[in-house]
């Protein structure tokens, strides 16, 4: 099995919105003929997003590694290569790598007017450790 990354690691994302090291290779920006952005996000082990929402939803397509996706008030779901996660509009959630594996996914994020994401508080280390221990 070929384990070579499909896309380059990209540019480091801000720790204002991510815990740990996450990187973005942008593919498509919001432009006249589309109302979405798309890119590959690579999370090093332990890296994750803050809690956040998308006013018009988001789709994640996992390319490699293992990670988690969790909606507020629900148990975290394990995600791995080949999984597709359809995130409804305005659902508070987070996603990222497991503590022991990196994870890369394509993120397709819709815009509502000029907004595609509302960033919220970080996922606590305590909550993240609890998810990794299940």
List strands and helices in order, with pairings.
Layout: E1 11-12, E2 18-19, E3 22-28, E4 36-43, E5 48-49, E6 52-53, E7 58-71, E8 77-80, E9 84-87, E10 93-97, E11 103-110, E12 118-119, H1 125-132
Antiparallel strand pairs: 1-3, 2-5, 3-4, 4-11, 6-12, 7-8, 7-9, 7-10, 7-11
Task: Provide tags for this entry.
about 130 residues; eight-stranded antiparallel beta sheet; two-stranded antiparallel sheet; about 5% helix; about 45% strand
Describe the structure.
It is a single chain. The chain is mainly beta. It has one domain: Jelly Rolls, CATH 2.60.120.10. 6% of the residues lie in helices and 45% in strands. The protein contains one helix and twelve strands, in the order ββββββββββββα. The longest helix has 8 residues, at 125-132. Pfam families: Cupin_2. InterPro entries: Cupin_2, HNL-like_cupin, RmlC-like_jellyroll, RmlC_Cupin_sf. This is Cupin domain-containing protein. Residues 41-103 form the Cupin type-2 domain.
Give a summary of the structure in a few sentences.
The protein has 1 helix and 12 strands; from the N terminus they run ββββββββββββα. By secondary structure, it is mainly β.
């Amino acid at each position: 099995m070929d384990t070579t990354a499909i896309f380059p690691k990209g540019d480091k994302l801000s720790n204002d919105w991510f815990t740990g090291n996450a990187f973005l290779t942008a593919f498509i920006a919001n432009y006249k003929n589309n109302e979405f952005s798309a890119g590959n996000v690579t999370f090093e082990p332990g890296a994750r997003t803050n809690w956040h929402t998308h006013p018009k939803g988001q789709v994640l397509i996992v390319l490699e590694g293992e990670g988690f996706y969790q909606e507020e008030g629900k148990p975290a779901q394990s995600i791995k290569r080949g999984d597709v996660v359809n995130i409804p509009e305005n659902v508070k959630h987070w996603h990222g790598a497991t503590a022991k594996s990196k994870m890369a996914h394509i993120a397709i994020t819709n815009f509502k007017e000029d907004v595609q994401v509302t960033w919220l508080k970080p996922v606590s280390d305590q909550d993240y450790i609890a998810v990794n221990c299940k």
